[in-house]
Specification:
- This protein has a domain of about 140 residues: Rossmann fold (3-Layer(aba) Sandwich).
- Strands 3-2-1-4-5 form a five-stranded parallel beta sheet, sandwiched between helices.
- By secondary structure, the chain is α/β, with parallel strands linked by helices.
- Helix 1 packs across helix 3, helix 2 packs parallel to helix 9 and helix 6 packs across helix 7.
Length: about 210
């Protein structure tokens, strides 16, 4: 079975969000050769941009909070109540290093155990059609086109695409995936439950990346 992933899977693991346990279990299935994980190259790069934006927001928040706290500390009635807030604002910055390290760890595991769909002319051209046909943003269209093109080329006997982005709920897109035998699953928990069933056969080494 091919299990198609995208950037939200990476972020779910890196930030230890609510369904990260299922993501980690899916990655373990790929590492054990019980499913074949497939991810667009774009979806490995996009999480760095996402985390970069979040960390930039936290830095700006810390600077603003520190400014307000310094002003409040000048008032005797507030100074004693502010003792714990320094640790909170420091956490905004420390979290960047922790999350960055986890993101790198996830990327290494995927690079070692997943097939990477490399962007090429056909995918870029298909992405333009995905924007027009399914109303997707340019970035979502790249992911969509990568999966659809890979399905057409690889013709897996069974596959699923894990995507929590509601923009992919377009009925025409769901039908396009199903025509190629690919189920769109809306949660990582559902993805693990679907992929884990009766997966006892080890797959051969994946073919060369497209």
């Amino acid at each position: 079975m091919n299990v198609y992933l995208e950037s939200n899977f990476v972020i779910e693991l890196a930030l230890l969000q609510e369904q990260h346990a299922s993501c980690d279990a899916l990655l373990a299935l790929g590492e054990a050769g019980r499913v074949r994980l497939v991810i667009p190259a774009f979806s490995l790069a996009e999480p760095y941009q996402t985390l970069g934006r979040r960390h930039g927001d936290r830095v700006r928040t810390k600077v603003e909070l520190d400014s307000h706290l310094r002003l409040l500390a000048r008032t005797r009635d507030y100074s004693e109540r502010l003792s714990g807030f320094e640790a909170v604002t420091k956490l905004l910055i420390d979290s960047q290093d922790v999350e960055g390290k986890r993101l790198e760890d996830v990327q290494v595991r995927l690079l070692r155990n997943a097939e990477i769909i490399v962007l090429d002319r056909a995918i870029l051209e298909s992405a333009l059609r995905c924007q027009e046909n399914y109303g997707l943003s340019p970035t979502d269209a790249l992911v969509c086109a990568s999966v659809l093109e890979h399905l057409q080329r690889a013709s897996p006997t069974e596959s699923c695409f894990l995507n929590r982005d509601t923009d992919f709920d377009d009925p025409d897109l769901v039908e396009a995936l199903e025509r190629q035998g690919c189920k769109l699953l809306r949660s990582f928990d559902a993805g693990y439950n679907y992929a884990a069933r009766d997966r006892l056969i080890r797959f051969p080494e994946p073919p060369e990346s497209l």
